[in-house]
C-alpha cells in the first residue's frame, strides 16, 4: 500500500497549482504537469451542461484537461481559494483517492456578478505508465459521446498549445481523475446577470457581490442596476414599484 505522505503529495501539488495566479503564462502548463499522460486523465465538473460550458462534460486526455482550464479562465475570475487542512480530508488508500472541501470567490467575467461558495473535490492519483507522452496521450477511447472533450484522434497531445514537455516521469504518482461538485445554480444566475434577483430590499445577501467596474461603463451600469433592484425588488414583485409617484398622480402634479 502506498504510504500516506506519498499518496497525498500529488494532491498538494495540484492544490498549489490551482491557487497560483491564473494570469501567469505558465498557469495551464503548470496545472497539466500535475496530471498523468498515460493513463489518460479525466476532469468532470458535475452539473447540467446547459448551465455553463465547463459543466456536465468529461474532459479526457491532456488536451481535454487543458480545454477545461482554458474554459475556466475564459469565463471566470477565481480568487481567495483556500482548502481545509489535510487532517479533514477523506483518504481512501485502497482507491488512491482523496475527497476534500475548499472555498473561493467566483466572478462571471461577462456580467461582473460573483458569489462565494464551498466546493468539493474528489481527486484520484495513479502512477505514470510511459516515459513519453507521444504514444498514448490522445483521448481516443477516453470519451463516450459528443459531450466528452479531448483530442480524440490518437495522434498525441498538442504540445505547442498545452506547453508541456514529452517527459513522462514513469512511475511518478500524478492526478488521473479530478471531479468537482460546486454551486452550479450560482454560476448559471451569474452568467445571465440574475444573481441580483436574490438580493433583498435592504441590500446584499451574504456571499453575493458585484465586481468593481474599474472604468468599464457597462460594468458600472450593471452595478447601478443591481443597487436599484436591491432597493425596489419587493415593490416590483408586489406591483407597487413607484409608491411615491403613484400618490402624486392621484392628487395632481406639483407644477
Sum this structure up briefly.
The protein is α+β, with helices and mostly antiparallel strands and 255 residues long.
Task: Please describe what this structure looks like.
- Residues 1-19 form the signal peptide.
- This is SnoaL-like domain-containing protein.
- Residues 220-230 have a biased composition (Basic and acidic residues).
- Residues 139-154 have a biased composition (Gly residues).
- Residues 132-155, 216-255 are annotated as: Disordered.
- With 255 residues, this protein is an alpha+beta fold.
- It has 2 domains: 4-188, Roll (Nuclear Transport Factor 2, Chain: A), CATH 3.10.450; 195-239, no CATH class.
- It is built from 7 helices and 8 strands; from the N terminus they run ααββαββββαβαβαα.
- Strands 1, 2, 3, 4, 5, 6, 7 and 8 form an 8-stranded mixed beta sheet that branches.
- A hairpin with a 4-residue loop joins strand 4 (90-92) and strand 5 (97-108).
- The longest helix is centred in the C-terminal third of the chain and has 22 residues, at 217-238.
- It is globular.
Amino acid at each position: 500500500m502506498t504510504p500516506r505522505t506519498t499518496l497525498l503529495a500529488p494532491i498538494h501539488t495540484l492544490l498549489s497549482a490551482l491557487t497560483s495566479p491564473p494570469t501567469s503564462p505558465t498557469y495551464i502548463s503548470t496545472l497539466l504537469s500535475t496530471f498523468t499522460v498515460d493513463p489518460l486523465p479525466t476532469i468532470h465538473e458535475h452539473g447540467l451542461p446547459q448551465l455553463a460550458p465547463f459543466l456536465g462534460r468529461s474532459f479526457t486526455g491532456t488536451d481535454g484537461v487543458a480545454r477545461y482550464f482554458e474554459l475556466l479562465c475564459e469565463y471566470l475570475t477565481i480568487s481567495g481559494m483556500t482548502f481545509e487542512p489535510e487532517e479533514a480530508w477523506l483518504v481512501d488508500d485502497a482507491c488512491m483517492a482523496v475527497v476534500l472541501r475548499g472555498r473561493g470567490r467566483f466572478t462571471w467575467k461577462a456580467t461582473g456578478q460573483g458569489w462565494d461558495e464551498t466546493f468539493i473535490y474528489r481527486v484520484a492519483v495513479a502512477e505514470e505508465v510511459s516515459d513519453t507522452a507521444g504514444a498514448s496521450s490522445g483521448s481516443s477511447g477516453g470519451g463516450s459521446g459528443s459531450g466528452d472533450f479531448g483530442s480524440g484522434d490518437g495522434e498525441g497531445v498538442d504540445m505547442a498549445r498545452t506547453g508541456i514537455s514529452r517527459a513522462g516521469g514513469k512511475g511518478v504518482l500524478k492526478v488521473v481523475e479530478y471531479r468537482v461538485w460546486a454551486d452550479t445554480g450560482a454560476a448559471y444566475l451569474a452568467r445571465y446577470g440574475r444573481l441580483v434577483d436574490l438580493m433583498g430590499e435592504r441590500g446584499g445577501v451574504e456571499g453575493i457581490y458585484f465586481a468593481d467596474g474599474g472604468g468599464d461603463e457597462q460594468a458600472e451600469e450593471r452595478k447601478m442596476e443591481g443597487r436599484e433592484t436591491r432597493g425596489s425588488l419587493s415593490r416590483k414583485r408586489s406591483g407597487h414599484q413607484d409608491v411615491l409617484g403613484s400618490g402624486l398622480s392621484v392628487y395632481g402634479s406639483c407644477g
